[in-house]
């Protein structure tokens, strides 16, 4: 991989982290409402995954979507503006934290009903296959979504119809506050793909380059007509499930242990070992800080949606 | 014009739209090799092939979810749910996804899909297979809900539904597939969201749709013998709801009966009468009556089932009460 691509990935990971840290502060100040689920700790997953896609490949995910939005190329301005509910946001202030999207960046949301977007992802792949396009649909979801019927209906359909979908389970060990082994009959989620005779792999999601490499291979396998593939990516969220999570279900020591495994720290060390100068990485950190400040300024200065907007876009006709 | 059945009219609309637009395809349980459980898509599989007439697993969330996804990326899928009772297995996808995606993402996504399904009782199928939950679906902004009462409207409304850029729930009635009527040949489109006077009259306004239209027309014939003239407004679309012909008619007759097959509580009749009271209170000469299904899960036994379903005699009795 060339140096520029490596540095881009580093930029994205740091940007996700800082946008969300700032977002958490704005939430505490009451400037962001509703539910907000932070991606902090999981940045390597979507960064490595989306770096491996081609521009025609569609991405769809669940409600923990700020990071995915940034990786897909949505400017941090629009992400921040959506968090603040502004007319300039990704969804014009009507979606909020859980419903960001940009069809021009081939990012198809941000879906807040657990598992419901999986059958829709099958539909993207069906529509593309029907039109004889070579797009791959990349569908991300949490471990908790693999226990709901939608997961099974969608996986079955994708295999029965040989649809070009890469199923990506981000296993962060907890569905809200319930540990995987307390909710799922099998703790290795990838085993569920076996039931549908679907090729699968379980990988470490704290190493962005491992995610990239596995994703690239999986995407090309799907594109070349190999049918759907399931990737289980092991990761951990450093923050609560959403803002205001008392975190009674896990011990502080466990969180600390994972924090030592910070995907950004791991990648930074990796880049240093590739002879990239620390000063260069520090420069990126500073550029990210400046971008985040600007994104907040942009969002705060942006107009609210108008009362006419309330009744806009109920129907397309 | 040809005199054809409701089944033929629906089939004709589908066939013509598939011939005209390659982005239209059908998916659902038994729509292909079987020919459709109500034989609407008989012959389609052989003519259009397995890519355009897709037999699905028995998995309603997958059927509707896949249709939504395909619609979002540029196709015009027509998903068939074998009966509306199975729509509850995909309720989330209909009301939480299809109905909301356009609005919730600031207009970026469109979902030009049709869900064709079959509702209604009267075939001794028991409580879970005989429901008329139309009003439940009409509750949700973002969804269009259509239920034709004549073969001509079935053809014209289905064509409009397929061409619509919004998700449309198209409800057929299980006992009306053999109903015959004059249907224009070729490209005939009826706009969604327009009510129509199906029978002019001066004494009482009947507001109804789907199977209720058949019952009300029969009641009108009976009452005409006694010199009572019903004016029958067919809603055709429950959402968007066109109240103009209803209010216009009511201002003339000052009396109304709403006839529907669903349960009375929180139903179409409740909605229509509330709107009449809101929009034309000064014209009310008698309390508006609602004819609807008895509030029981529909039983298997034919006598009991027919007793629970709205009948011609119920409409006649209600009309006499408001006169």
Strand order of the largest sheet of chain B: 3-2-4-5-7-6-12
Radius of gyration of chain B (Å): 19 Å
Main beta sheet of chain A, described?
6 strands, parallel
Q: What best-fitting shape of chain A do the alpha-carbon axes yield?
A: globular
User: What is the highest CATH level, the class of chain A?
Assistant: Alpha Beta
Known CATH architecture of chain A: 3-Layer(aba) Sandwich
Strand percent estimate of chain A: 5-15%
How is the largest sheet of chain A built, in terms of strand order?
Answer: 2-1-3-4-8-7
Mean of pLDDT of chain A:
97
Radius of gyration of chain A: 19 Å
CATH superfamily of chain A: Thiamin diphosphate (ThDP)-binding fold, Pyr/PP domains
Q: Judging by the overall fold, what is the CATH architecture of the largest domain in chain B? A: 3-Layer(aba) Sandwich
Helix run count of chain B: 12
Total number of distinct structural domains of chain B: 2
End-to-end CA span of chain A: 46 Å
Largest interface, chains and sizes: A-B, 46 and 43 residues
Uncertain stretches of chain A: none
Chain-wise SSE layout:
The complex is a heterodimer of chains A (317) and B (323).
Chain A: H1 3-28, H2 43-51, E1 58-61, H3 66-71, H4 76-83, E2 107-110, H5 117-130, E3 137-142, H6 149-160, E4 165-171, E5 174-175, E6 178-179, H7 180-183, H8 190-194, E7 200-204, H9 208-226, E8 229-234, H10 252-259, H11 263-273, H12 278-301, H13 307-310
Parallel strand pairs in A: 1-2, 1-3, 3-4, 4-8, 7-8
Antiparallel strand pairs in A: 5-6
Helix pairs in contact in A: 1-2, 1-11, 1-12, 2-9, 4-12, 5-6
Chain B: E1 2-5, H1 6-20, E2 24-28, H2 44-48, E3 53-55, H3 60-72, E4 76-81, H4 91-98, H5 101-104, E5 114-119, H6 134-138, E6 144-146, H7 151-163, E7 168-173, E8 180-183, E9 196-199, E10 204-208, H8 211-224, E11 230-234, E12 237-239, H9 244-253, E13 256-263, H10 268-280, E14 289-293, H11 302-308, H12 312-322
Parallel strand pairs in B: 2-3, 2-4, 4-5, 5-7, 6-7, 10-11, 10-13, 13-14
Antiparallel strand pairs in B: 1-8, 6-12, 9-11
Helix pairs in contact in B: 1-7, 3-4, 8-12
